[in-house]
UniProtKB/TrEMBL annotation:
Originating organism: Coilia grayii
Lineage top rank: taxon: Eukaryota
Lineage: Eukaryota, Metazoa, Chordata, Craniata, Vertebrata
Gene3D superfamilies in UniProt: Rhodanese-like domain
Stored SUPFAM superfamilies: Rhodanese/Cell cycle control phosphatase
All copies of domain Rhodanese, residue ranges: 58-160
Protein name (record): Rhodanese domain-containing protein
């Protein structure tokens, strides 16, 4: 009886907090897996590692969007990235293709595009951006959970 109650409690929690049934049993840092998106020790199909990102960039197979604020972007960003701040993301990806291109200087990705990748400083905002874009129908969007912080650290360490 206790096990049944625990399972029902877990199911109710998962339903209320948007945890998919396949994620419900997995945890990271004591939280359901879906609540850990953006944490650097957590790897899912939605996340891209540093080495994966470098390969995608080298092959020209990524549309990279930096969801940090413009001042953060101006201080440094990953090459080829386009700045679309998190606060503008929902509106930006709801623009017409012409409006998007005029505002951001690049084409609006198709909703089924597999090459759309978000990043921020450490992965929190890009994880939130994943949810925003998925709600708009971009179900194949991914993010670089290490963010610009990891990118810049790795690039600096390779130069030394």
């Amino acid at each position: 009886m206790i096990i049944v109650c625990l399972l029902l409690t877990l199911l109710v929690f998962a339903t209320q907090h948007g945890v998919r049934s396949e994620d419900a049993g997995r945890v990271c840092n004591g939280k359901p897996q879906s609540l850990c998106q953006g944490e650097s020790d957590h790897k899912t199909a939605s996340t891209v590692s540093y080495s994966e990102l470098r390969n995608l960039l080298a092959e020209g197979k990524v549309r990279l969007f930096d969801v940090r604020n413009p001042d953060e972007f101006a201080e440094g960003h990953i090459p080829t990235a386009v700045n679309v701040p998190l606060g503008e993301l929902r509106e930006a990806f709801g623009l017409t293709p012409g409006q998007f291109e005029a505002r951001y200087g690049t084409q609006l990705p198709e909703s089924d595009a597999a090459d759309v990748l978000l990043y921020c400083q450490r992965g929190r905002r890009s994880a939130e951006g994943l949810q925003i874009l998925r709600a708009l129908g971009y179900h194949r969007v991914r993010h670089y959970a290490g963010g610009y912080s990891e990118w810049s650290d790795r690039v600096k360490s390779k130069k030394q």
